Amino acid sequence: MADITDYKLAKSIMGSNFIGIDELKSIKSMRFAFDKNIPDIFFSEGVLEQKKDNYILILGVSNFFNGDPVTIRNLRNLFGKNPEVSEPCFYNQDWYDKENFVDISMSDEWYLIRKNVYEESRAVQPQELMRKYLFPSAVSCTYAFFTAWLALGIRLWYHDFVWCSDTDHNGDRIYVGKYHDIDGVNKNGFSIHRHLALRPCYACID
């Protein structure tokens, strides 16, 4: 049987890197439908001690109060795409509207989400990184970004992209993040992109 850590103990270990029931309820712009039974925390005390500084332990919730599933599409509908109206928001793009991954719902379970990218993973092809790392889902990263900002004041991956486990209909890898363009060219917004793999239709002329 997997190790389970008590809720209060987990919160004590994680300190300010914890988003549970109370933290989610503090987010006025997101109203969740909470199950009467809080999911068990299937991370051992040792694992939490090891990750408490670099990760956030987040309670995932599958539905909003109105019954809608917690998906990327519904989060985007909630937060919009215009930083001049309100922040945080999504970057103004619509290429993924017909992709399946935007309608995958969060699960009612606990997630450990890393706050910062591994420095040694920068500019390395995702295929190579997957030999060592287990990528998180796009919806869990999106959910973590908005809940961490609003509940804890933490802006995850503010200038960085993170690779996700999802792919689009062509099999191209999804990556998300980079809320702020350090060069000031693009407007603020949580970005969702795909890494285009080379296929026979890519060629050149002279």
Care to describe what's here?
The protein has 206 residues and is an alpha+beta fold. The chain has one domain (7-195). It has 6 helices and 6 strands. Strands 1-2-3 form a 3-stranded mixed beta sheet. Helix 1 runs parallel beside helix 3. The longest helix has 15 residues, at 138-152. The chain is globular and about 65 Å long. The mean pLDDT is 94.
Q: What labels describe this entry?
A:
3-stranded antiparallel β-sheet; alpha+beta; 6 strands; single chain; 3-stranded mixed β-sheet
Number of domains: 1
Q: What does the overall shape look like?
A: globular
Average pLDDT across residues? 94
Number of helix segments?
Answer: 6
Briefly note the structural class of the backbone: alpha+beta
Specify the biggest β-sheet: 3 strands, mixed
Strand content: 5-15%
- Portion in helices: 10-25%
Q: What multimeric state do the chains show?
A: single chain
Query: What is the spatial order of strands in the main beta sheet?
Result: 1-2-3
- Poorly predicted runs are none
Number of strands: 6
Distance between the termini: 62 Å
Which helices and strands, and how do they pair?
Blueprint: H1 7-14, E1 18-19, H2 21-25, H3 45-51, E2 55-59, H4 72-79, E3 110-114, H5 126-129, H6 138-152, E4 161-167, E5 173-177, E6 191-195
Parallel strand pairs: 1-2
Antiparallel strand pairs: 2-3, 4-5, 5-6
